[in-house]
Amino acid sequence: MKNNSLNFQMKFLPTDIISTWKRASLSSIFCSSLFSNNQQKEVFLSNVIATVINECLELVVKYGAKKTENYTLTCNKTNNITTITLSFFLQFQQISLLKSYLKKIYLIKKNNNFESIIFTKTFAELGYAIYSFIEDYNGSIKIDYEKKPRNVTTILKTQITLNLNSKDLKNDY
Amino acid sequence: MTTFLGNLDESKLKKLKEKVSLSFKMPIDHSKDWEKCSLISNFFADYCVSSFYKKKEIKSILSTIINELIENAMKHSYQDQNEINIFLKNCEKEIIFITENIATNDTANNLIHTLNQLQTKDIESLIINRMKNNLMYNQEQSEIGLLNIIHNFKTSISAKITPIDKTNLNIVEIITRLEHGQ
Amino acid sequence: MIIKTDDYIIDSSILNEVSISGSMRLPSPLSYDQPFSLIKKSLENCTDTLTVNLTSLEYLNSSGITSLARIIIQARKDNKDMKLIINNSIPWQQKTLLSLKQLWEKLDIESI
Fold first, then answer.
1. Which end of chain A lies in a sparser environment, N or C, as judged by fewer CB atoms within 10 Å?
2. A154 has a pLDDT exceeding 90
3. H-helix segments, chain B
4. Which residues of B are less than 8 Å from A37 in CB distance?
């Protein structure tokens, strides 16, 4: 393994995080500390990673289906590119909603109509986090699922992939 | 041929690795990433005890056990085949850890020898003898990590050693069980 | 003398006393040579029983235990009195360090 690369995979049970919410924060801080350990100068990146992973864990635990199955979080960093992949289960209906919510956010990024995404019925709590991830950190988000759904309630193995380029991070606080 | 040591067989191990409470997999370079051992151990311990009452005491025990297991896996991993996989299963009355790494035949045979010694010899005297030998021969490794966790925390250890085809390497899985009262 | 890192502190500034605090999980017994040189030095220079206070040492791995055992064997060979003060609320200290008495019956261990 080269010094500037890092990859790890964590499996967890959503029910464990639901029963003890602190575990989401423990996990995100732990993952980010692996980054800062690897790249001591990149404290800022490590802080962003902790925030992003915490939001991811909260999302999959809140909305995920089959909560007694193992979900997987994979992190891969090569040079400046960091990829975080979440594998979990989601109802097709939720996948569609999340995808359209994401489209909406990309759209308001252009119009700066922020209010329209924080009063939606579903995923509203994610609005600011996703917006910030795309706008402030120039990150990209992709949602994939396996198999064709039979109906809206079909539960599908879903993968959310987040990409970050540390060159694009604006550390201007 | 696959070797099972201790109270273990294929179906038991398969069941243990399903729906784990937490698992973590990462390549760890012995020379560069040593400090990650402690980081991972403390995280696993914190994660596990966050729902327990006597957090401080149990965290200390768990972190000590996991740290020894990861150090053991790291020290005995073969060159660049250094991916370590650690699993935690939190059952009603016991906590189970599984570590997985790639090791040479020699290393695997040493493990078999140590676990077989446990059947016939007193652990405390084994530890003391190894400490004395360590000083006498100025050995590089302490070789007491696994023995210490069996002796100090009354854990039981079993193992599976699976040879990898056409190599002198093996997948070594060490299963450590710790009973708890909470 | 004091050795201070992000993880641990070894303080031998008082005659006949050494205290170790924090978390020590170094890669091999060899890597303890440098930080534990303070204990060895204190052992060489001690005018009375050398007291090693471990009550604030949260973690010590098997390599560290082996290195500590080496120092105890050295004290036995040099016929110098040594005392370990251990913390009875830190489980590994209670379990592991008490059995170090087997290396030398004159080793004094006080649990507080």
1. C
2. yes
3. 10-16, 34-49, 55-75, 105-120, 123-136, 145-153
4. 33, 35-36, 39
